[in-house]
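Weekly structure sync, notes
Attendees: PL (lead), two postdocs, one rotation student
Agenda item 3: pending single-chain targets
PL asked that the sequence for the first pending target be pasted directly into the notes so everyone works from the same version. It is reproduced below exactly as submitted, 392 residues in total.
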Amino acid sequence: MTKRSLFKLIAVPVISLALFSCGGDGSKGPRPGGDTIAVNLYEVQPEKAVYFDKYPGTVVALMQVDIRAEVEGYVTGIFFKEGEHVKKGQKLYSIDDSKYQASVNQAEANVRVAASNLDQAQKDADRYIYLNKQEAVAKQLLDHALTTLQNAKNQVTAAKQDLKKAHTDLGYSIIKAPFDGTIGISQVKVGNTVSTGQTILNTISTDDPMAVDIVVNEKQIPRFIKLKQKNSPVADSMFTLQLSDNSLFGHVGRISLIDRGVNPQTGSITVRLVFQNSSSLLRTGMSCTVRVRNDDTSLQLLIPSKAIVEQMGEFFVYVAKDTLIQGTDTTRKVQAPSLHAIQKKVAQGQTIGGRVIIRTGIQSGDRVIVDGVQKLHDGSMIKTGKLGESKK
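Predicted structure, written out during the meeting:
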């Protein structure tokens, strides 16, 4: 026997054994009547969706100023409670006024001296005018007298201005609230020295109403312009405020202004809303969420959020599809109907409670798998536990 014949005798049994071990056809697909995964289905139907677009917001005061001293000296009195509401013109601080009172006294004395000099200059001028009419005095003396009279008048004017400034400085030693609002924690104590225009004594801001600033994409400018034009004096729920503890603020808002320009680096623009704040719950600097009600009346496709699977930053759902699979019995081939899970990539929209708006990827009438999705892969055989799960 040649080597070639011997190889054929060895190879044939090995190939036969391999085919027997693989079941003959080598198929890896699901067999008819094999294990299936129990799932629940949700039939997708279009419906009207009422939801809110949410924007991070920051509470700001409509007016806020730092209180600074207009004169220097040490603080002699504080006349308010920190954090309280103050009225316009209310006395807040006093600064030592001894030198400013002295300046007033001196300015008043200078006014009296200047007035006396003016009186004397007026008498001299009147005398020289009379004598000049009688041609009893040199013209040069009359000119000197008139010049002296004008200088005396100017001195009186200057003295009165000095007195006015002294009174102003004395008034600045009492610092008053520039408008109604809430005053903060004092940055100085009694006895501290303050410098003119430099030392910040406190900060005061308006507290009712309050503003909330949000930043929106420039693509939404037309929408917000329309919303601003639709602002109505009758309160509605178009703009509501969600606080950091997830509670809803008790007043609805309205658009006050849209900023003058778009930030070219971010492509965004600031929109300011105004809310009544009679409860003083809103405070400057608070973080919150502005909810803008969707006014789109078109029907939407919503599914339970638990039906959505995330993979590598993309979102998918499984849709139940009827298919036919081949099988055999002892005498003939048969076709058995079966449900399979087909994976669909979807684009999500707004979340509403426990459901999500689906923009693309599925259509009305699709049966979406809502339970058992963690066991599925594309093409899995499934069976239904409950068809048409109730909407939540």
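Discussion points:
- The mean pLDDT is 83.
- Residues 206-293 form a domain with the Elongation Factor Tu (Ef-tu); domain 3 fold (CATH 2.40.30.170).
Action: rotation student to compare against the earlier draft before next sync.
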